[in-house]
UniProtKB/TrEMBL annotation, chain A:
The lineage of its organism: Bacteria, Bacillati, Bacillota, Bacilli, Bacillales. It is a multi-pass membrane protein. NCBIfam families: 2A0309. Keywords: Germination, Membrane, Transmembrane, Transmembrane helix, Transport. It comes from the Bacteria. Signal peptide: none annotated. It comes from Jeotgalibacillus terrae. This is GerAB/ArcD/ProY family transporter.
UniProtKB/TrEMBL annotation, chain B:
This is Spore germination protein. The keyword Transcription does not apply. The keyword Transmembrane applies. Keywords: Membrane, Transmembrane, Transmembrane helix. Belongs to the GerABKA family. It comes from the Bacteria. It comes from Jeotgalibacillus terrae. The chain crosses the membrane at residues 290-314, 382-404, 416-441.
Length: 361, 501
């Protein structure tokens, strides 16, 4: 007997959440604070709301486009050649994201715990489970994402001791940085939210009761926004802004300073758990990328592209060793991300709907 | 050997006389010596008959009784009587069939009457089976103490006694080209999902073995993924466990000669349920259920975590414990993995030794092995005393699981975790756990997800997996059996609310 290759609304919800929440969460606080200073939380909230609105537009358009694979939609909207070309660009973008994700993951883990372990071993230990997971069906990945989400409340609970001695003065004066800085901070915010577009790619697996189930999942970014806001506010309550801009992984520093009766240094245990969260984000992108290349190159299964993509990511990562290079790789991400996650999808969906309307008349 | 004039015949009517018939039967049953062919005479009738049977398979007292009865009644009156035990065959009976029936414990009375054969089969198989007693591997404190034995009919009797419903279906299959072992597929047809039943039948029918030794032997051919370390069928020797699962929509499979039933589709949490949970109070049941599930994590991860902490993350130990741990570990010449392996293998040795030995000696070995070796090894300075604590706790936790299969799985799985912890610390353990989790998510039992109430998530499934809610609240059947008949029971506590009014 075969399980139906179908995803429920809640599973899609967690798929999108887990694609968004990755290793970037640990460095997000610093990145946003550098730009928006103590108004970082406003940037984050605005970013979240904007992306939530964008998702609503996606939802509205998707419900009209019907049950289609996004990459087939590309071809239908722009014609075969341009569509194929765009799909290839998407593939490159996904590999780029996977590369960034792998690099920043290895960076965190080698800076925080495993200073002496060779980087390629850390990478392999990350990539092998990812390959195994991504080679499954979409239901397996959805279940994995859902199960792993238990770790998110764990982080929330671990951070609650911060509120025993909160310093709310760190937020004041609210809005003093000015609208310019706050909006500038949106760029850094976008990095944390990347992954929301997976809603587009995974939505084709929601088959039964489509409208209702997709609506459930569309609110995933709201959940992520609240979660991020909690993390950011917790760190802002704990660190002064001058500290926050130099502390690379604020959450880890907080956990390091907390001491419990049974275990010390929960940051070590927590980071080991957070690996799984980073992994789901990687796995979901890997799955999308491999499924896209399956369609692009007319392959039978998505397992072979996984090997190629992971191999490419692994080999490229080996050459990018220095800290400066790793940061350099990431600099292009916000601009590229805006093109591939906002402009292109919106354009494609609108184009497709308009084009189809004309055809129908 | 056979005479030169011997030629193989297919069915009984092709033979002409008694001599030839005897030769044919003897040939088809492989000229075996325990085949008995007796000629019987009766003074009043001019007729010779033979009775054919395989001696060890026949209840000789009953045979004698039946012979007496047939002599008095039938031979005189020449009337053919059939009963539940006696069946008459016409002479187109094939020898192959005849021998097969002989092997089932049937005796044949064959006589020549007006130049045609008259054949009667008398079913009097010898029934020897162990008494119904509590299975040693699944003892419980309260509740039924009856378990299966080696006789299939007796086992089915036990199930039928507990589920007296017309919907209980038993399907027989003969497995094994040489052994022709009877097996039974048991399900309740208005509860079980018939797609699952069909899938199981398809799997049974594809089995092509010479001898069906035991259920465990067939299990490998029936399960979805035999390379997985996890058992995909619940194995039990308890009849109450089988009926409980049947009533939830699962199916059971039993083999003649094995006191065990396999039950599918099983999920991970089914291995942590014990009949004891349902016989006691629900709070206590829930507590023990949670304890068992925690024991899974402890048995799997405790040595690995200890090794990871000692060799990588010493700073995790809180301040007050640092010195005692440091003192214990310092003088040990070996790496923690080696220490752990020595102790783990010692415990496995003790376990294996006590199984083979008679009970009183086994206890002595336990004492000598556990206490003496454990103490001496610490005093000699080979192994740290913390490691002894860790390994002993792990061993106890691994034996808490009510199912032997899952128990061995956990014991085997902790070795890779120990290795990962030695090489990569917490990170290695997490990678191992992730791989395990993905494997469990992808694993299926009869096509149904193995980690069911969690992945895919079913809220209603929580009532009887990690928790054991009061039985009157468990009004729906578990979702992972895909039963179409979801409602298990009505509201049994209505009287309580009626009183309030």
């Amino acid at each position: 007997m075969q399980i139906k290759n179908e995803v429920t609304g809640w599973q899609l919800f967690y798929l999108v959440v887990q694609t968004q929440v990755g290793i970037g969460v640990l460095s997000m606080q610093k990145d946003i604070s550098i730009v928006s200073r103590h108004d970082a939380w406003i940037s984050l909230a605005i970013g979240g709301i904007l992306i939530q609105l964008l998702l609503m537009v996606f939802l509205w358009l998707l419900l009209r486009a019907g049950e289609v694979d996004y990459f087939i939609l590309l071809e239908k909207a722009f014609g075969q050649i341009i569509g194929k070309l765009l799909a290839a660009c998407y593939l490159a973008y996904f590999i780029y994201i996977l590369l960034v994700s792998n690099l920043s993951f290895t960076k965190v883990i080698s800076e925080w715990i495993y200073m002496d372990t060779p980087r390629w071993i850390l990478m392999l230990l990350f990539l092998i489970p990812a390959m195994y997971c991504a080679s499954g069906k979409v239901v397996h990945i959805a279940r994995f994402s859902m199960l792993v989400s238990i770790i998110l409340p764990v982080l929330v609970m671990l951070l609650i001791p911060v509120y025993s001695t909160p310093n709310y003065t760190h937020f004041f004066p609210i809005g003093s940085e000015g609208a310019g800085q706050i909006l500038k901070g949106l760029e850094a915010t976008l990095l944390a939210y990347i992954g929301f577009e997976s809603f587009l790619y995974f939505s084709k697996y929601v088959r039964s009761n489509r409208e209702k189930e997709l609506k459930k999942a569309a609110f995933s970014t709201l959940f992520v926004t609240v979660f991020y806001l909690f993390l950011l506010i917790s760190t802002q309550v704990y660190f002064h802004i001058e500290e926050l801009v130099i502390v690379p992984y604020a959450v880890l520093y907080i956990l390091k300073s907390l001491s419990f009766v049974i275990v010390d240094r929960i940051d070590l245990i927590f980071l080991s758990l957070w690996i799984v969260i980073a992994l789901t984000s990687f796995v979901n992108f890997l799955f999308i990328a491999s499924n896209e290349s399956k369609n692009l190159f007319h392959l039978k299964s998505h397992k072979r592209p996984i090997i190629f993509i992971v191999f490419a990511v692994f080999v490229t990562s080996l050459f990018i060793k220095e800290k400066q290079d790793i940061i350099g790789v990431q600099t292009a991400l916000p601009a590229v991300a805006i093109i591939f996650t906002v402009i292109l999808p919106l354009g494609t969906l609108c184009f497709y709907l308009l084009f189809r309307k004309e055809k129908e008349i | 050997m056979e005479s030169a004039s011997f030629s193989k015949k297919v069915s009984v009517h092709q033979t002409q006389n008694m001599q030839e018939l005897q030769e044919q039967v003897s040939y088809y049953s492989g000229n075996t010596n325990d085949l008995v062919m007796l000629q019987i005479h009766h003074e009043s009738i001019e007729r010779t008959s033979i009775i054919v049977y395989i001696e060890p398979l026949i209840d000789s007292v009953k045979l004698e009784e039946l012979l007496e009865w047939s002599k008095e009644m039938k031979w005189l009156t020449n009337e053919r009587v059939t009963s539940s035990k006696i069946q008459s065959y016409d002479d187109t009976l094939r020898f192959e069939q005849l021998v097969k029936q002989l092997l089932e414990g049937e005796a044949f009375l064959i006589s020549m009457e007006e130049s045609s054969w008259v054949i009667e089969g008398i079913k009097i198989p010898k029934k020897l089976s162990r008494a119904i007693e509590e299975p040693k591997s699944e003892q419980i404190v309260r509740g039924s103490h009856s378990g299966f034995n080696e006789s299939l009919t007796s086992n089915i009797y036990q199930i039928r006694q507990r589920l007296k419903t017309s919907h209980l279906v038993i399907k027989y299959f003969q497995i094994g080209k040489e052994s022709n072992t009877n097996s039974a597929l048991i399900y309740v047809d208005n509860i079980a999902n018939l797609m699952i039943v069909e899938e199981f039948i398809r799997r049974i029918q594809s089995i092509d073995v010479d001898v069906a030794h035991s259920v465990g032997f067939l299990e490998e051919m029936l399960e979805d993924n035999c390379f997985s370390p996890f058992p995909q069928f619940l194995v039990t020797e308890r009849s109450d466990r089988v009926t409980g699962n049947l009533s939830e929509g699962r199916i059971a499979f039993m083999l003649d000669g094995s006191p065990t039933a396999i039950i599918g589709p099983a999920n991970f949490f089914a291995f942590y349920q014990s009949p004891d949970d349902y016989n006691g109070r629900f709070i206590i049941g829930t507590f023990y259920r949670l304890l068992r599930l925690c024991s899974f994590l402890v048995a799997l991860l405790l040595p690995a975590m200890y090794i990871a902490i000692i060799s990588f993350h010493f700073e995790v130990i809180p301040e007050a414990l640092t010195l005692p741990t440091k003192r214990a570990v310092e003088g040990i010449p070996y790496p923690p993995l080696f220490e752990a392996l020595v102790l783990e293998i010692t415990i496995e040795l003790i376990r294996e030794a006590t199984i083979r030995l008679p009970f009183p000696v086994g206890q002595t070995i336990g004492v000598v092995g556990g206490l003496v070796i454990g103490d001496a090894v610490v005093n000699a300075g080979f192994v740290s005393n913390v490691m002894v604590i860790v390994v002993a706790l792990t061993a106890i936790s691994s034996f808490v699981v009510p199912s032997i299969e899952m128990n061995s799985t956990v014991r085997i799985l902790r070795f890779p975790f120990m290795l990962l912890a030695t090489l990569f610390g917490f990170y290695g353990v997490t990678v191992g756990l992730t791989l395990l989790l993905i494997h469990l998510i992808r694993l299926e039992s009869l096509g149904m997800p193995y980690l069911s109430p969690f992945a895919p998530f079913h809220k209603s499934g929580m009532r009887d997996t990690i928790l054991r809610m009061p039985s009157w609240l468990q009004s729906t059947r578990p979702a992972e059996t895909m039963t179409l008949n979801k409602i298990r029971q009505g509201f049994s506590k209505r009287w309580h609310y009626a009183n309030k009014k």
